[in-house]
Amino acid sequence: MTIELGFFYAFAGITLISALMIIFSKNVLYSAICLLGTLLGMAALYVFTRADFLAVTQIMVYVGGILILLIFGIMFTNKKGEDRVYSGDRNKFIGIAIGIAYFVLLVTSVFSINFQQLPWIKQAMANENIVNNSTVNQIGINLMTDSVFPLEIAGFLLLVALIGAAFISGKKV
Amino acid sequence: MENILISEFSYILLFIVGAIVFIAGGLITAWIIRPSRPNDEKKTSYECGEDPVGNAWGQFNIRFYIVALIFILFDVEIIFLFPWATVFGQQTLVETTSGVWGWFAITEMSIFIFILTLGLVYAWKKGYLDWVKPLPKTEDFNSKVPYSLYEKVNQKYTVPSSKPE
Asked: Is A88 exposed, middle or buried (0-12, 13-18, 19+ CB in 10 A)?
């Protein structure tokens, strides 16, 4: 358990440091590359919460897809004559205030909850319904039994998104 | 308490550490061994090739973006395929339902994939996947000298290449 805890703090540190680098980097492209560290660290944290499928999804969709799209976006928005895209800093005071307020909200709520007394955790502990194995199998069975209709709806939504994305971004100039 | 799920991921951690060691090790060894005598010629992007023009961070063709967008949607589709693939051929499930499970699973997934393929067909048919070539610029300059005069000059100064007999 102590080794696990050590790794947890290591990955949390990677996430935190790269998140801070996103904010403090002036060059937008460097920020996007630091986002890679944050997303990978988040995936590792998902593993520690025993959400292995979510971790794989995070890496495949966010790191493999959305981050690339973001970097593409930065490359397309390059101004002519200027080499790099720099981010300015506006609304400093309000931004810092909102950040601190959100942080305080999260910290107070985490410390005020007694996790052992939550009803769904109590129930899970009573039934010994603790995830010890890979959840991918169970998700697959659920997808094919209880959630077949939502799966097809998801497919339809993806179709709508695909057509919409192609239509909007593919307009002939 | 031993948790199988997390200890299984230690293999992935091993791969991550291996990747970092491989790349960092190679770069650091090269950095220690190599002599450092740079000059302008060595510092160019292509030491023995074209001289690069402008910055590598220039603008990209917009078509990359559409391809990337379509890629992400199929990426999400693959995410759904993963858990399905682990249970699709599971022997106990197929045997307890006397084969119905397998047919049901493959039909459902085929419908799911077919729906998304419609989107790809749409994008293909509408030409969103076609590469946009830069238009050739034509000068709309109108010369006041008539065209026939040019032709006359051309004919006058044309060197007869090979005379038949």
From this structure: exposed
